[in-house]
Specification:
two-stranded antiparallel sheet; mainly alpha; about 5% strand
Length: about 180
Amino acid sequence: MSTTSENFLQELPIKALKAKKENISYFKKLKKRTPKNLDYVVQDLHDKEFERTDCMTCANCCKTTSPMFFSNDISRIAKHLRMKEQKFMETYLERDDDDCYVLKSAPCTFLDERDNTCFIYDVRPKACAEYPHTNRKKFIQLTDLTVTNTSVCPAAYNIVESLKKAIPLSNTPRKFRDKN
């Protein structure tokens, strides 16, 4: 990882915290008047961001958080590891405050920190495969999660900042903006 990327990653939680109130307000307004093309706009911003962002140089999500593991994930991964599901769950998972299965520890047990590769990449949890969830349909339903992800994922942070520029929302009522 380059020094610039490392610096950005170290600053990310602070930057995200500073922007959190603004982002919550922005998404609250966006929910009231959701543009019909929002999913297309966000998908385009997502695609552009991931043209210049390589998750393998970061892996901050794998180093700091845990995905949720659903029953299909547990079955698939346990089979891949040639383990019984119950043994997989006992070995690697615990229930969080929301009663969801998550990893017992961070960084992720399946992450090779030397090169940020994933030991179970081909069978990884759905939450990992879809992270940071900025290219999903009905994006407007994921705004709380997106705000949370901005403190972990540089790409999510950049996508939200780009979205605020692509679809600016003003505090000034429309009738006053039109007169200026």
